[in-house]
Amino acid sequence: MRPLLVLLLLLQAGSLRAQAKYDAALVVQKGGHEIGREEFSISRSGARSGGSLLTSNARYPAASPTTRIETTLERTPDLGIAKFQLAVQAPEGNVVILAAGSGTRLIVRSVTRGAEAGREMPGGRDIVLLDDGVYSLYGAIADLATPVGARLTAIFPRSGRRATFTARREPGDGPETVRTQLTGDITGTMITDNEGRLVRLELPAAGVVVARATK
What we know:
Largest sheet: 15 strands, mixed
Shape: globular
Structural class: mainly beta
Low-confidence stretches: 1-18
Number of domains: 1
Strand content: over 45%
Order of helices and strands: HEEEEEEEEEHEEEEEE
Distance between the termini: 44 Å
Strand order of the largest sheet: 8-7-6-5-4-3-2-1-15-14-13-12-11-10-9
């Protein structure tokens, strides 16, 4: 009963977060068609670690969603991973994934109905946690990118996929934006604002374009 209890408690906590007010919204398109929407916020004061706290609520499709993904990512002042929580409600089943950094290690735990599993992965400052349905997480890449290109490793905890890529920071279209070019296992172009919030993301290989929703 313990895994089920943990799952229910975390999903309930996620539902409460979904009622919160978010700072920005994203429209997710694939092949030129809208497939979902995501709302998110980034807070500096809400992070217990003294770093930053991202909360996100994604739904697919946007109207009458069959899949909901609620995410929390807390990072330390040196951009390490203090806490990560991803709760998925989908027709194929619900799952909660928890992760936390511990020095050069990353501890990941997944909880589904009646089962719980954990694994340990290499961690460190050059690790970013991503998900194929939570695009606000890509904003963390902009913080780690450098003008000469930073070599990073992305871990997708839901699928277990790993991707190595380079993130090169470039001037944005104006003083309030930053452009980041991604090459390697992940290729694309990303634009973020000065608060690290995603404005636009293009992933040509996946046919995905994510853009800030207009009011």
